[in-house]
Amino acid sequence: MAARFAQIPVLPLDEAFAVTAEFKADAFPQKVSLGAGVYRDEGGKPWVLPSVKKAKEKLHQTPNLDHEYLPIQGSDPFLQLARDLVFGDSSLPSSNSSSNSSSSPSPGSGSGSRSKDNTKPQTKNVISFQTISGTGANHLGAQFLAQHLRPKHVFISDPTWANHHLVWTVAAPDVVQKTYPYYHPASRSLDFDGWLTTLENEAVENDVVILHACAHNPTGIDPTREQWEVLAQLFKRKRLFAFFDSAYQGFATGDLDMDAWAMRHFQTVLFGSGPEPKTETKTKTESETESSATAGNDDEVVVNVQSSTQHQQGHPGLCIAQSFAKNFGLYGERVGAFHLSLPLSVSPAGAYSQLLRLTRAEISNPPLFGARIVQTVLSDVDLRAQWQQDLQTMSLRIRSVRGLLRKAIEQQQQQQQQHQQQQQSSSGSVATAITDWSHLESQIGMFSYTGLTVPQVQRLKEVHHVYLMRNGRASLSGVNEHNVHYVAAAIAEVVAQ
Ligand code: LMR
Asked: Which of 19, 47, 64, 446 is 20 to 30 A from 266 via CA?
């Protein structure tokens, strides 16, 4: 038996974590990390958001906060707030009703039941589960869709966050992975035609397409609204399943609504606001009783029933993997959510019970602390306002770094050019052309797809102790006023080789 273990091939460590480990092990004082997508402040240090700090203090002062299990699906008040952030619904506390903050659900008080507010007309049919950050949501979604939508293919952008491929390989090995072109290297822009053509020619009904909700990782290039509109129509016509990965809401533009625009637009195009379905309170069947009892759910299951079957042949649905790692700076707490949006005509009870089953088998029930922090911030008017300011702080700093770095690299290259021109007159060699670095500023979000080649990235590390991903992706929060000239000089040097 031991021999079998000895034969296990050794896999390379995931690149984002390998780069971080190499950086940590480097003793060079001026080393710079532009590897993993984590926010750093102006001093190059991890930043605990002031809103998060205050939420922790508030939790600390809350008497009798227990440490009981959450229900399998997670904290329902947290999920409601997380869902509202995605879909922009009106149950958010408004700044003119501060009483909401005290009447908001207490942290960790998940009842285990789905929303029972049947007074509002229902325009959406969304099931939400708390997950182990965005990765857990991607994983749960892949498993669930592989089993219950049974797509032939999953389409993933080329390039993408590397974990998309791994998650689908591990969680849904029978679904064939295909890529769609996303990036046009020569023009450093979106390959929208290639993307459309691939989906048009190769995707079939119920195929899953992974979409980055905003701040595409790694390119920092998002479709325009007009392009999203074209895509949504294509998804509707071909009945493709949109799987949004939303890891950067609030980070791309600093505006939560703008960053959620694509997801909300797809929701509207695929399902419309729809006729109000007849809502029926159904007595639980035996199997539903069993699954909800496992969830600690003593309530009736509320399902929406629409007599017309026309939607049954309609669009299959869409889903969202939501992470709170970046926009709350809660990397280690692993707070996330999976939202499955179904047509109004489809009862969510079956899907809900299957997601309970998958979650129970995988994690039993999700961790409490991070969800408590997010819930505390989102349900308190003042903390929420502070959080929005924190998002501005982060996104504005990265935007300003983009400009600084571009200017500094271009200055370095001008100096190099002057130097080379002087040498050229004596040696006859040709001067290096100045590279255009405008893409540093036009791309958005945490990353820049710099265009640096693998050997250039290697030289940056070995000669200059500047670490980034092999594909040339730079996590720009690692740049600040203190190191920008060092980084720029290093980049200019490797480009000139
Ligand atoms: C990244 O893209 O660097 C981050 O999202 C960290 C990770 O999990 O890969």
From this structure: 446
List the chain pLDDT tens, one digit each, 497 residues: 678 999 999 999 999 899 999 999 999 999 999 999 999 999 999 999 999 999 999 999 999 899 999 999 999 999 999 999 999 975 444 333 333 333 333 322 222 233 445 556 678 899 999 999 999 999 999 999 999 999 999 999 999 998 999 999 999 999 999 999 999 998 899 999 999 999 999 999 999 999 999 999 999 999 999 999 999 999 999 999 999 999 999 988 889 999 999 999 999 999 985 443 333 333 333 333 333 333 333 333 333 222 333 344 578 889 999 999 999 999 999 999 999 999 998 999 999 999 999 999 999 999 999 999 999 999 999 999 999 999 999 999 999 999 999 999 999 998 888 887 777 766 655 555 557 899 999 999 999 999 999 999 999 999 999 999 999 999 999 999 999 999 999 999 999 98
Cβ(218) to ligand 1 under 6 A? no
Whether the CB-CB separation of 368 and 110 falls below 8 Å is answered with no
- Taking residue 162's Cβ as centre, other Cβ atoms within 10 Å add up to 15
Å from CA of 205 to ligand 1 middle? 31
Helix axes 484-495, 454-464, angle to 10 degrees: 130
Q: Identify the residue whose C-alpha is closest to ligand 1 atom 5.
A: 37
Atom number in ligand 1 closest to CA 36: 3
Q: Tell me if 136 CB under 6 Å of ligand 1.
A: no
Query: From CA 409, how far away is CA 401, in angstroms rounded?
Result: 12
Residue to mutate (ligand 1; options 23, 39, 161, 251; most atoms within 8 A of CB): 161
> For ligand 1, what atom is nearest to the CA of residue 161?
2
Assigned token pair, 351: 């899907």
Please tell me whether the overall predicted TM-score, pTM, comes out greater than 0.90 for this model.
no
Closest C-alpha residue for ligand 1 atom 2: 37
Q: Write the ipTM.
A: 0.94
> Contact at 8 Å (CB) between 223 and 263?
no
Best residue among 20, 163, 327, 333 to mutate for probing ligand 1, ranked by most atoms within 8 Å of CB: 163
Domains and their CATH numbers in the chain = 13-48+396-495 (3.90.1150.10), 68-379 (3.40.640.10)
Q: How far apart are CA 381 and CA 104, in angstroms?
A: 10
**Cα(414) to centroid of ligand 1, in Å?**
34
DSSP-derived letter for residue 72 is T
Atom number of ligand 1 nearest to Cα 475: 3
- C-alpha 96 – ligand 1 centre gap (Å): 37
